[in-house]
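Please produce the structure of this protein holding guanosine-5'-diphosphate.
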Amino acid sequence: MDVLIVGLFIVAVVAIVVAGIVTAVSRRGRAPAAAPPSSMPAAEAPSPARRRSDGLGARARALLTGGTPGGDEWNRLEDLLLKADVGPAAASRMVRDIRDRYEVGADPEDLLREEIVGLLGEDGALRLPSGRLGVVLVVGVNGAGKTTTIGKLAARLAREGRKVSVANTDTFRAAAAEQLDAWARRANVQLIAQQRGADPGAVAFDAVESARARDVDVLLVDTAGRLHTRTPLMDELQKVKRVLEKAAGTVDEVLLVLDATTGQNGIAQAEAFASAVDVTGVALAKLDGTAKGGIVLAVREGLGVPVKLVGTGERIDDLQAFDSRAFAERILGG
Ligand code: GDP
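Below is the modeled complex.
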């Protein structure tokens, strides 16, 4: 009896061992097909800060990791950049630079980050003087966000302790004057008023005189923005700028306000303004209205001037100094 039990036990153990071996062998045979098709090696697993699986950075990383990228991968990287609204010129420049710097094992997201920051440049600060009147001329098509940006900027400069005045040279549209008046009240700064229909150049001259008489630190000048393709507007802006230069000695900044939601169309407009009045910086309004921040890169590449301010909403505090590193993170994640 004991011998029978021991015998059965041995048979059972052998059966279990044999079954285990058979299962292991059959699993091994199926292994390649059973593995997830795009499983990422542990070393490549995204860190918590990089868990943006559909962001530009993560996509570039997926595209360029795991072997030397070829023409197809570089073309697909360019497509990714174009979809992010980076524009053709900036996209091809970025791909060329990254391809030149690429080494096996490099982190594609880091390469892209360095490229974005390099293209944008580190310094986007407004150049405002101390000890004399600073003049900022603000241009752009109607609806871009000029008056709103002036209102927000006036509030910010005033908060920093500067005495600010705003003036409107668009004497043609009654609504323009009313709107600037409303922003001046909100920002608690002085509006230098003008008569309806007055000559824009004369308004600019009076605004400088008046700002000087009041010991103002910064004068922000709003302008007309009707159809940019009509030469009279560009003539008018050039005249306003000449008068400001003559009256104040210099115009410290010519800020072009661009609507971020207009995408690549905005670039052609921007070029017309840039060649007429030597734009020194861009204020990109309505960045809250688009997920495609790439327009900033298109502007930088197309105009060669830095983005200095970013509008992120309609409230008075929704204006930020442009920070290329923070922006790079935004575009890599979006
Ligand atoms: P202007 O004709 O160039 O002076 O443009 P406005 O300043 O009148 O702005 C046109 C519209 O854009 C207004 O409805 C503003 O409230 C809106 N706007 C301006 N800046 C921003 C922004 O940064 N974000 C959003 N969401 N709206 C903005």
